[in-house]
Design goal:
With 591 residues, the protein is α+β, with helices and mostly antiparallel strands. Helix content is 29%, strand content 23%.
Length: 591
């Protein structure tokens, strides 16, 4: 009888013939294997050991300076039909894409080891989990995949049980940016990536599998693969509500996932399920149940400190891999935002000189097991996942968008998510306040046409469904150039209102854009916010929102005829209500 691993063995043989490695190593995920990889990378200079007294089992990796971030312009989604990829993706015909990238793979592993990395995204026995195998020539990738996924023998055993897996082929190549591509073939459940050793370009279980390929799988199979954190909010009475939240970059996603309640919330706890990716599936009870498919955090280091995210900092003093951070004179990791210590060597290993720019690369990272987070929830390993009470969307908006509002229903919530966006900063683009729409924070990650993606979201509104309520938040409202809302731990006050709305236990005001809290609906104890500031945070500028909805209409139209009619109808409903509303809408409470 043929083994279900025959297909895997044949694929490994095919790849070996193409790439011509000196040897093949099947990864078992053991501690001994990990230590052997670390020793190898210390010998080759790919890793530097950090101070064992202050940071035991911590190591620093320095990327090639040309290889420090995702490369969206070199990232392709390659279904047979270009329309299935959509305007939100770069498309290449699959035959052409295979030919182009396979020519670069030919002979690329000569003198190197080919590592076969079986992994499981999600708890190993979860029905929501999915498996993959990454072939790579990078021991750094293998080490990171061991932290970020359930990798090794247990994953291989599940692949043998299930039969199917996502195929991921990766090589660092020669790190030439002109020979760098990340190709996704969703109809083949295949990923090919060459020319980069960085993060999501190389750890193929992360964005490539868990979002681009998984979003395609999710549409086929009736679930959702989303760029969302998952947290649990526990009251002093022990009641826990789980919330999923989607934010574009630079909007505080990891900080929210690991939030510590402020002094005004004695007895409250926040539990971290995940900070980046959420897979949700309808359960027998009609609710959406979610897992975090990852087993670790691949977080941005700069800005992480005791004041912004003490839980994150607390997990980084042992058993962590740092990428492109700076070093102090006594070999401790350092990055901008840390109040103590000073850099002696920058992220490229040079003696630190402010004239060369930041000491740590702005996109420098840490890789660490999720279990090291003080707020880690054991429910992260629950095979059934956790039930989601609320879905939150949010972006960085200096004006117009209130602190928080609740969508009227699921259809309105899909529109709110589809329309969300963030304003750019001068540091990133050279222009301030340029609004970029980023539907559900999935613009770089949705593996198919956004119009079909919106339709898939709408499809969950069916009889007997008990869907989460949908909200939008904005921590970044400004007045006189300063943030109005304190943010960080005080975002707990908004989360409390959101959970209260899910339980029908707190009031709100109905407006054309959604339901907003009144001042008395939020716990504002200990905050120094003036009446004018509260009016700014909780008000609706009808004329400004009318202009916003005109822009949303153009955005939805950009996806052509596939854009769901129901979404356009919902847009028209809100637009018409805005037109009919008085300049200052009456603040009548709703239940």
């Amino acid at each position: 009888m043929a083994s279900k691993l025959d297909a895997l063995n044949r694929w490994v043989d095919e790849v070996a013939r193409l790439t011509q490695p000196d040897r093949i190593h099947w990864c078992d995920g053991s501690e001994a294997e990990y230590q052997a990889l670390v020793e190898l990378m210390l010998d080759t200079g790919d890793l530097t050991e950090l101070n064992p007294a202050t940071h035991p089992n911590c190591y620093l990796h320095r990327s090639n300076p040309s290889d420090v971030a995702r490369v969206e312009h070199l990232t392709f989604v390659c279904p047979a039909n270009a329309e299935d990829a959509g305007a939100n993706n770069h498309w290449m015909a699959p035959d052409e894409a295979h030919r182009k990238i396979d020519a670069l793979f030919a002979g690329c592993m000569k003198g190197r080891t080919l590592y076969v990395v079986p992994y499981c995204m999600g708890p190993i026995d979860s029905p929501l989990a999915r498996c993959g195998v990454e072939i790579t020539d990078s021991p750094y990738v293998v080490a990171n995949m061991r932290v970020m996924t359930r990798m090794g023998e247990a994953a291989l055993a599940r692949i043998e049980r299930d039969g199917g897996f996502v195929k991921g082929l990766h090589s660092i190549g020669d790190l030439d940016p002109a020979k760098r591509f990340i190709m996704h073939f969703p109809e083949e459940l295949t990923i090919k990536s060459i020319g980069s050793g960085y993060g999501g370009n190389a750890l193929l279980g992360k964005k490539c599998h868990a979002l681009r390929i998984a979003s395609w799988q999710a549409r086929q199979e009736g679930w959702l693969a989303e760029h969302m954190l998952i947290l649990g909010l526990e009251s002093p009475q022990g009641e826990i509500h789980y919330v999923a939240a989607a934010f574009p970059s630079a909007c505080g996603k990891t900080n929210l996932a690991m939030l510590i309640p402020p002094a005004a919330y004695p007895g409250w706890k926040v539990w971290t399920i995940g900070d980046d990716i959420c897979w949700m599936q309808p359960g027998p009870d009609g609710r959406l149940w979610a897992i975090n498919p990852e087993a670790g955090f691949f977080g941005v280091a700069p800005g992480t400190s005791r004041s912004t995210n003490p839980n994150a900092l607390a997990m980084l003093d042992h058993d962590a891999i740092f990428t492109n951070v700076a070093e102090t004179a006594d070999q401790q990791p350092w990055w901008e935002g840390l109040p103590e210590g000073k850099p002696a060597r920058d992220w490229q290993g040079r003696d630190y000189d402010p004239a060369n720019g930041p000491a740590a690369h702005p996109n420098s990272r840490f890789t660490v097991s999720a279990r090291q987070c003080p707020s880690w929830s054991p429910r992260s390993e629950d095979p059934q996942g956790v039930p989601i009470s609320a879905i939150i969307f949010g972006g960085r908006r200096e004006s117009l968008v209130p602190l928080v509002f609740e969508a009227r229903d699921w259809k309105h919530g899909v529109l709110v998510g589809a329309a969300m966006g963030s304003e750019t900063t001068a540091a990133a683009t050279g222009a301030v306040g340029v609004l970029r729409r980023d539907s559900m924070a999935m613009k770089p990650f949705c593996g198919y046409n956004f119009a079909d993606y919106f339709a898939h979201w709408l499809s969950f509104d069916r009889p007997n469904a008990k869907l989460p309520k949908v909200f939008h938040v904005n921590w970044f409202r400004k007045a006189d150039g300063k943030f109005v809302w304190p943010g960080f731990g005080d975002n707990m006050r908004v989360l409390e209102w959101i959970v209260g709305r899910c339980k029908d236990a707190v009031g709100a005001v109905e407006t054309p854009i959604g339901n907003l809290p009144r001042r008395e609906d939020l716990n504002l104890a200990g905050l120094s916010l003036s009446d004018a500031q509260l009016d700014l945070l909780l008000g609706v500028d009808r004329e400004g929102w009318a202009r916003e909805y005109a822009g949303i209409a153009e955005y939805l139209d950009s996806f052509g005829e596939r854009t769901p009619a129901a979404l356009k109808q919902e847009h028209a409903r809100v637009r018409d209500e805005l037109a009919a509303a008085p300049a200052a809408p009456p603040r009548a409470a709703v239940g």
